[in-house]
């Protein structure tokens, strides 16, 4: 025989688990300082007028629950892209190390509901809805390692920079509403690695170099 149950127990069994509030969900999305914010890949482009800029797309963007791609992963299917404002870099050298000195500059994040990015057309990554703009906080020193004495050949390049979030715009994606300011906080610190071998260079440019970057959140403002 089953033991008698209190009426309160029956009502408790029928209770639904409360869904978290929007405020609680926003807190859950917010990254802690040093927590992974994103992975990107793209290319540095040296234009014929000697200005530099980098363009590409997000492989991972923390806080976004839905698939970032419309099909197989690649620049032509990416919903989230980035584009930098062109700038003029300076240089220095130290033996087999070639140093690129990039000034303070800005880059923006775009949501492309219909993906249109193409490495043969760098400007295509600056299309769609601009959902955030960040500014590098200081000079970026990129280091290219070379090998060989008579004809030095680039092997790889690295850089690191911090960028503060200047502005963001709420957006809807996959049936949910997001705001990168609530996810990233003050901004990011990104570590980048570039290839020593250039990629196919589109018309209007002297050089295109593939790279990948991983960013950590700076935390709350």
Account of the protein in words:
- The chain is mainly β and 221 residues long.
- The protein has 3 helices and 13 strands, in the order H-H-E-E-E-E-E-E-E-E-E-E-E-H-E-E.
- The protein has helices at 7-14, 22-29, 180-184, and strands spanning 36-47, 52-61, 80-84, 90-94, 97-102, 106-111, 129-136, 140-147, 153-168, 171-173, 176-178, 187-195, 205-217.
- The strands form 2 sheets. It has an 8-stranded antiparallel barrel. A two-stranded antiparallel ribbon has the order 10-11.
- A hairpin with a 2-residue loop joins strand 10 (171-173) and strand 11.
- The longest helix is centred in the N-terminal third of the chain and has 8 residues, at 7-14.
- The mean pLDDT is 90.
């Amino acid at each position: 025989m089953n033991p008698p149950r209190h009426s309160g127990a029956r009502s408790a069994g029928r209770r639904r688990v409360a869904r978290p509030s929007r405020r609680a969900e926003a807190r859950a999305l917010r990254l802690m300082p040093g927590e992974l914010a994103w992975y990107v890949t793209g290319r540095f482009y040296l234009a014929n007028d000697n200005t530099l800029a980098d363009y590409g797309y997000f492989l991972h963007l923390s806080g976004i629950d839905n698939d970032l791609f419309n099909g197989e992963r690649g620049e032509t299917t990416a919903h989230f892209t980035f584009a930098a404002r062109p700038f003029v870099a300076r240089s220095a050298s130290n033996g087999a190390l070639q140093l690129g000195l990039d000034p303070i500059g800005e880059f923006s994040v775009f949501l492309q509901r219909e993906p249109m990015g193409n490495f043969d057309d760098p400007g295509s990554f600056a299309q769609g809805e601009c959902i955030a703009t960040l500014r590098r906080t200081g000079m970026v020193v990129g280091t290219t390692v070379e090998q060989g004495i008579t004809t030095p050949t680039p092997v790889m390049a690295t850089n690191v920079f911090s960028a503060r979030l200047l502005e963001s715009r709420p957006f809807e994606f996959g049936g949910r509403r997001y705001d990168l300011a609530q996810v990233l906080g003050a901004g990011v610190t990104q570590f980048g690695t570039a290839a020593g071998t250039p990629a196919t260079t589109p018309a209007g440019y002297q050089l295109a170099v593939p790279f990948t970057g991983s960013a950590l959140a700076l935390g709350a403002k």
